[in-house]
Amino acid sequence: IDLDTAKQELQEFIPHVKNISDSSIRKMAGRDLARFKMFKKQGIAVKFGRFTQKENNQIRKNVDEFLSITGIDSAEKLLFTWRYPDERESINRLKVEHQFCEKISEGIPRPWRLIYYRARKMFDPNNYKGRYTEEEKEQLKKYHAMHGNNWKKISELMSRSNLSVAMKFSEIKSAINYGPWAREEVQKLKLAVKEVMWRKLEMEDARSPSSVEQSNEDLWVDREKLCQQLPWTEIETKVGSRYWRQCKQKWTSILAKKMSKVQHLHKGTKSLQDKITLIKRLYEMKVEDVNEVNWEVLSDAIGDVPNAIVQGLFYRLKVSCVPFWQTKTFSEIIDFLFEYKLPEFEEKL
């Protein structure tokens, strides 16, 4: 199908399709569109975000079955074929003959590209090599000076995964402050978020330079956009003294204080009511994995707050109220909160 038709049909399944490049849309039209339509007929929605344990198990099953069919003797050879130049041609031929793209994504209602990246992360033996030594850190700095952000090249030189070397370099490239945030750091963070949000709005709305200049002093952004994924490595660079995870956590706490009603979330009767509502809704969802929880629904139920705030409330509940929570499954944690803590909170209220 032509590009415009592909965009129109994919829009139903991927709302942000207008932000995807034309070449990626063409690939998705070939690899994903028929799958998405099949899942729709089965009443299954296309998913994004963190993979559930069930989906991870399905990926393992798909990979194992493909290896069995083709005779390829390891997942690493299948997913990191370039590491085996002597066998690359024969492996690629087998992948084409046995429809690798279709097989690897079987039973998983997500874009093929995300499934492929997830499989590579799961089966990369270089992904789980423990802490970096001081020598490795110095090597990483040297290789980055030579190759820039070519993480594929650097990962090959260091025998670590792309993700591992990229994140470790982000962590060590400058002196990181782990203490309380100074006022100057907070201002840098707010300015950095404003800059990236403004650029994003310019791209989405295609504003003219004159309209941008007129409204830049008074930037208003929908709550959902403020809570969406932001380019945290870029924000980290702008802040300069904090690791990207610290920036993300701090921004979430800033949102919590600024959003309406959030300042009362953990005080008095409002705090008890929020805990009661959260436990009841989680119990009613009857899900087996935390990654299957619809946090959007829960945030609306508690009072139109960011998803991260509700997730934080749940985390504090399980840590403070559920004994040996680390050894329990998600459903066991919810059952305990519902059976033992909910009556206690309702009595207090």
UniProtKB/TrEMBL annotation:
Family matches, as SMART domains: SANT
Domain HTH myb-type: 124-161
GO biological process: termination of RNA polymerase I transcription
Classification via Pfam families: Myb_DNA-bind_6
A GO MF label: chromatin binding
A single cellular component GO annotation: nucleolus
Domain Myb-like: 124-172, 173-255
Annotated InterPro entries: Homeodomain-like_sf, Myb_dom, SANT/Myb, TTF1-like
PROSITE patterns from the UniProt entry: HTH_MYB, MYB_LIKE
UniProt protein name: TTF1 factor
